[in-house]
Amino acid sequence: MVSPETRNAYTATIGIECHVQLKTKTKLFSAVGNDAREAPVNTLISHIDLGMPGALPVLNEAAVTLAIKAAFALGTRPQKFSKFDRKHYFYPDLPNGYQITQFYDPIIKDGQVAFVLDGEEKRVRIHEAHLEADAGKSTHPAGRDYSLVDLNRAGTPLLEIVSAPDIHSPAEAKAYARELYLLVRYAGVSDASLYYGNMRFDVNVSVSKTTELGTRTETKNLNSFRSVEKAAEYEINRQIELLEKGERVIQETRGWDDARAETFSQRGKEEAHDYRYMPDPDLPPIEITDEMIAAIERTMPTMPHTYREAFRGLGLDPTAVEALIDVSENAAFVKTVYDTFGAEHAKRIANWFVNVLTGENDAVAENQASVESAVKLSQMVGDKKLSSTAAKDIWLEMSTKGGDPEKIATDKNLLQVSDEGEIAEIVKKVLAENPQAATDVKNGEMKAIGFLVGQVMKASKGKANPTLAQDLIKAQLGI
Ligand code: MN
């Protein structure tokens, strides 16, 4: 193990490449369905995806539109001129013998991703982002002497987003990955399902004791934020251990074993010249007009940082703000409440989203409550018609099934009793049954009043308004 002192003597430098599957109906160069999630193997293929001789790729304009949106999401503008190149390598799941990608002139050449980590604002520059076609999938059945190839994924449009080496800790790597996920989801660029591999991260790590960068390794195909963090952590420690022993770090591609939480050597790292990049003669350059860029810019939705700023005035816990922003629909809901009905309702509803939905019921996918009914529920709490516990109960039902809060409260018998006469009767009874506590309160021991209020709540089966109960106790004791 590396001691904290040794670890502190080194600076870690991390850069992340992220492959994002674009949310298009069809593939990047063929008119074949792009949703391979549940499709039987080798059913979403055409002569183009199979690399048949003479088959010519035709660029899918929707992929270009999404790349332009991604540029805005990354805080920049797209390149008006970009083009495709061939990257050569030989593998059974790549029928052409080359991948169509953008090497010399990518569609995005800069940008940045900003996020907050432990209260501190971080900014990671984007080096470039390029369009490319995905390869197929190979599987190697255990104990068999053959491999299987599924080309459904071949030709799926990808945007590969390459960060500058601006990341310096595993926690920053994880926060960057999550922010990128939010950006592409909010912008509608990708479904970004980590489960289906819509986003895959390659993490480049090096360590050094000087200002000169050390030799880096690339750990490929990480599919969760947690594995990005763990792989970076593992590589930093492994490299420091090697250097401390007087050994060298080898530049290589590594894999990630999630079960063992370890990286492992896969192959020596290729240099760019190994791929024999050359312009693709089958595809004309992508030329985007100012009008097209402006039209797409107008369709850009509200992005996460705008919500963060908007919610600043609510006094929410930063963790709650992030949990809310995790689901863009919920963030938009709370912002509408805030803009139209004010901070009190917005804060209460935000906390319901965060604590009730994510805490108690992960399975809830889409909120079913309307803004009006949510505000009505919040108003009932404000008017002391409901306890906060009862309100959470009602919210759980409203957000999963919809419905009117007043009706649900009546059906569940949750409305607080604010009828003075009724509560006064209960108070009278409670005071008679608890003479010691009553005397204590009378003698100024205000701790005992909590006990009495508790007894009133119990006697009313939780429906008495506690503030009113307390006032009535004081009144009846003449204090
Ligand atoms: Mn790539």
Features:
479 residues; three-stranded antiparallel β-sheet; Arc Repressor Mutant, subunit A; 3 domains; alpha+beta; binds manganese (II) ion; 15 strands
Number of domains: 3
Mean of pLDDT = 93
- Based on secondary structure, the structural category is alpha+beta
Helix content: 40-55%
Strand order across the largest sheet: 5-6-9-1-10-11-12-13
Number of helices: 16
Radius of gyration (Å)? 30 Å
Biggest sheet: strands, sense, closure?
8 strands, mixed
Q: Outline, from the CA principal axes?
A: elongated
Total beta-strand segments? 15
Heterogens: manganese (II) ion
The share of residues in extended strands comes to 15-25%
Which spans have pLDDT < 50 for at least 5 consecutive residues? 359-363
Ends distance: 66 Å
What features would you describe in this structure?
The chain contains 16 helices and 15 strands. The chain is of the alpha+beta class. It has three domains: 288 residues, no CATH class; 108 residues, no CATH class; 58 residues, Orthogonal Bundle (Arc Repressor Mutant, subunit A). The strands form four sheets. An eight-stranded mixed sheet has the order 5-6-9-1-10-11-12-13. The protein has a three-stranded antiparallel sheet with strand order 4-3-14, with no helix packed on it. Strands 2-15 form a two-stranded antiparallel sheet. A hairpin with an 8-residue loop joins strand 10 and strand 11. The longest helix has 20 residues. It starts with a helix and ends with a helix. About 1% of the residues have low confidence. Bound molecules: manganese (II) ion (MN). Manganese (II) ion binds next to loops.
